[in-house]
Amino acid sequence: MALKSSAVLSSISRLLMLVGLCTSSLIIADAQRPPNVVLILADDLGFTDLASYGSEIQTPNLSALAKAGVSFSNYHTAANCAPSRAMLLTGVDSHRAGVPNIPETMPPEQAAHSHYAGTLGDNVVTVATLLQDAGYHTYMAGKWHLGQTPRQLPSRRGFERTLALGDSGADNWQHKTYLPIYDRANWYADGEQYQLPEEFYSSRFLVDKMIEFIDENQHDGAPFFAYLPFQAVHIPVQAPEEFIDRYVGVYDGGWHAIRDQRQQRAIELGVVPAETGMVEMASTTQWQALTPVQQAYEAKRMAVYGAMVEAMDHHIGRLVAHLKRLGEYQNTVFIFSSDNGAEAMGEAAQNSWLNRWALASQGYSVDYETLGLKGSFNAISPSFASAAASPLAYYKFYLGEGGMRVPMIIAGERVPVKDQFTAAFASVIDVAPTILAFTGLAPAPQRYGGRRVEPMIGRSLLPLVDGSADAVYGEDDAVGFELAGHGALFMGQHKIVLNRGTYGDGQWHLFNIVLDPGETNDLSVENPLLLQRMLARYQAYVKDNNILPIPDGYRHERQIVLNALQKRYADEILISLLLILILLPFALAYRARVKRRPE
Fold first, then answer.
1. pTM of the model
2. What ranges in 103-169 are assigned the alpha helix state H?
3. What value does the mean pLDDT take over residues 116-127?
4. Looking at the domain assignment, is residue 260 inside a domain?
5. In this structure, what CATH number is given to the domain that contains residue 155?
6. Nearest to 3 by CA among 154, 140, 129
7. Residue 349 phi/psi, 5° resolution?
8. Is residue 472 part of a domain?
9. 3-state secondary structure of 171
10. Beta strands per DSSP E along 408-454
11. Torsion of CA 559, 230, 283, 535, to 10 degrees
12. Which is it for the CA torsion 376, 381, 387, 390, positive or negative?
């Protein structure tokens, strides 16, 4: 069925879909109508944060979805939120989509260029637009972070009903910013500024809104696309007390114990190979070096994190149950993933007296007794972030596997393969083409809506979930990523990666990430020809996507402070003070690492 942009042809398209005349893929060939699609996105969720991937966190509803479909153990995203979201919704590389980095950390030397705006460009078409023009109802409830002008909001990018957070994050209990880099928490409903209700918890409220949207058109027979990007588990890490209580004591053994336990459990579940090793991150401190009071505090921080993950799972379960009551579950395809790996905050920053004072001026407490509850500010440390990524290395903002490799589940009655993992390489650019394949639609042509648009470069993952293929990428196919000067390229079983910044060494490394997902064995000396071949492919990727060099000395932690100061100027000294306190542990860690380098 051809995609049409006019209202009349859209109505014709919907009619054809309702009588079952649309062209469809193998999976929908015998169906009476195209499937609903529910795309669920966690925020900053680590690779083994789900029970079905090896976690101690209870996620029964996502485990049920895993049993109802295929789980991906070699799926990769960008290493921070906005670039991942741009690629997720368009199937286009983030640099071509206008979102190579989040605007909060974009250096001015890059931000001056139009394709480095940090907002979704008019040169790309979202999968929501394609589905809406083909007769789907399209709904979004959650974090957007792809632009906040009227033309950039999701209500103008293909979504019929929206409740959207425009910022990188916000408080989970009230209408409040989470860091003083924003004047206010920018929530929008159908394109207009929106005030959250007094009784609010993000995961519950977002699912409530999605259920409300679905119910509005439930009887007209048209399929729907529901995009549900949670705030969980982005900072501030917060959760209802009844969920927190379940994890008090679980993390008393420290991050090394959790990292080891998850590694073993992931091996047992077949998530990673039996010989998978782990590296010790430079940011991971020794648990035994902490005092008992410090250990209790760090364990509570992680307990709230586990609670926030389980609370998200609980509300996902409410949505699934509602679709079952409506009789829509059997006709719904579910896709669950995360935008990037776990986010790490400074070890000492949260509970220092000066940070307490700075956060108190923003209305936040960091007291042990109320961690995670309304009025508290919480985050997990780099050490526990490494546990969340176990057995992988690095976390958010870095292109190590821990920053890029995250869970993904494709499930539903329309997915023939059940309760299996696939180790086939997959990328965030593949999600939009996969959704189109499920719904029997084609990508946008070269011109769409009266303008020239970038083509989708991702590939449908349907062959992996219908059992017709073991891979959708060949041994010579290359997929590149770049973020703030970090670089990575995947080809066959191998990956080359360069990490800069506080915990990177600025050197290219070569790994077999199928056999060695923990990136423990650098093959660059052993196989220099492959390294050079992949480096040449990476340079071609840089040229093809007009990737700009990063300024000397750039660090994302520092740039967010500079950008905030530029925006708010010197009368907002508190901004710089708070952010410097957050960044101080990173600076100290970097200084210590430099001192440890051999002469």
1. 0.91
2. 108-111, 127-133
3. 96
4. yes
5. 3.40.720.10
6. 129
7. -65, -40
8. no
9. coil
10. 408-411, 420-422, 426-427, 447-448, 451-452
11. -70
12. positive
**Whether residue 237 is found in the same domain as residue 343:** yes
Q: At what angle do helices 431-439 and 81-90 cross, to 10 degrees?
A: 30
The closest alpha carbon to 514, from 394, 405, 430, 409, belongs to 405
Instruction: Tell whether the torsion through CA atoms of 56, 293, 342 and 258 is positive or negative.
Output: negative
Measured over the CA atoms of residue 550, residue 556, residue 560 and residue 562, the dihedral's sign is negative
Backbone angles phi, psi at 293, to 5 degrees: -65, -45
Alpha helices in 327-426 (DSSP H): 353-360, 382-388, 401-404
Residue 6 confidence (pLDDT) above 70: no
Domain containing 29: what range?
Answer: 7-465
Tokens read off for 370 = 């109320």
Cβ atoms of 542 and 482 within 8 Å: the answer is yes
413-472 tens-digit pLDDT: 999 999 999 999 999 999 999 999 999 999 999 999 999 999 999 999 999 999 999 999
Q: Which of 22, 76, 81, 556 is catalytic?
A: 81
Query: Is 81 one of the catalytic residues?
Result: yes
The total number of structural domains in the chain stands at: 3
Selected catalytic residue, list 145, 234, 314, 556: 145
Do 224 and 244 have their domain in common? yes
CA distances 329 to 114, 317, 485, Å, are: 43, 12, 43
- Averaged pLDDT score across all residues of the chain: 91
Give the whole-number percent of the chain exceeding pLDDT 90.
82
Q: Which residue type, as a one-letter code, is found at position 347? A: E
Q: Which of 53, 38, 85 is nearest to 338 (CA)?
A: 85
